[in-house]
Amino acid sequence: MPSKSALNVIDFSTLLEDQEHGNATFVEREILPRRWRYSEQLENIEIESWSYLTADGSTVPLVAVDASSSIVGMRNEQPIEAVRAAIVIKLPGENPRIIRLGPYLRSYSSINDGMAALETLAKKLALNQISGGIVLLDGLMLSEEYHMSQSACARSYNDNTIISIVKRFVSTKVLPRTIDRNKPIIAKLKDSDLYLLKLGREPIVLKSEIYPSMEIEDVTRIVNTLLKSDSIYMAYPNSLRLSHIYSKILFTESIALRKLAMCESGIVLHPVINDRKIILGPMWS
């Protein structure tokens, strides 16, 4: 069971106040509506150009970021959220190094606010861990409002390329029929800054954003470097997979955090009323 000193109940509202005007800014992701927005967009996907991928070039440093949350209680109709973020750093020729932030407890007006704030902090930390490498992020988190020139992005992103990937499958039917589906592929979507990535032989296609903005030839070179620098598991970068694994809040941790929230916040545990069982009796399930 984690100790109170290791949990550090903190206020995330002060973490983002040091944003400087004009610098690249990450937008807190919208958790629930995106599922439906993606399904609507997939109906109108058109590919502008595409290319096969190969693990070419030299290896570069990688850093991957992900975060998770768990609701441990409610206070004054506001959720008490446990949040944790993980940063995976992979330098050429070395084993991955893991940095974990949290778990922390915080009460917010809506679910996932705490995770978004901690994840934003983890991204800012990740950008300073390496230079001239690739930063891997989970989900489409960069706003078009902050598109910048190549030189400005190089200064703001510490000369790193940012690749954000969504863990939602895109049907392989959107790929041109002439494509060899057994090979890794990158495709640029028409009238969009989004890409489709197929990083392995598996029939798994994922949506991605890549910053700074560049020509498809340069994007292909960067993704080839990613394939050279990281192992790929089920068409997904292993470093990003590890960041998700190490950010998870385990069931036993949730129990300990719930107990801590009850002690510190005076929360009382109430049994859940099973309305179906009351109405339907022994046939409720």
Count all strands and give the number. 11
The CATH class turns out to be Alpha Beta
The radius of gyration is 21 Å
Q: Briefly note the structural class of the backbone.
A: alpha+beta
Q: Count up the helices.
A: 8
CATH fold annotation: archaeoglobus fulgidus dsm 4304 fold
Q: For the residues shown, what is the average pLDDT?
A: 77
Strand order of the largest sheet: 1-7-8-9-6-5-2-3-4
CATH architecture label name: 2-Layer Sandwich
Q: What is the helix content?
A: 25-40%
Task: Please give a structural write-up.
There is one protein chain. With 285 residues, the protein is of the alpha+beta class. Helix content is 28%, strand content 28%. The chain has a nine-stranded mixed β-sheet with strand order 1-7-8-9-6-5-2-3-4, with helices on both faces. A two-stranded antiparallel sheet has the order 10-11. The chain is globular and about 60 Å long.
Main attributes?
285 residues; alpha+beta; archaeoglobus fulgidus dsm 4304 fold; two-stranded antiparallel sheet; 8 helices; 28% strand
Structure described in brief:
With 285 residues, this protein is of the alpha+beta class. It has helices at residues 4-7, 34-41, 113-127, 150-156, 216-229, 238-247, 251-265, 275-280, and strands spanning 47-52, 62-75, 78-90, 97-107, 134-138, 161-170, 185-189, 194-198, 205-211, 232-233, 236-237.
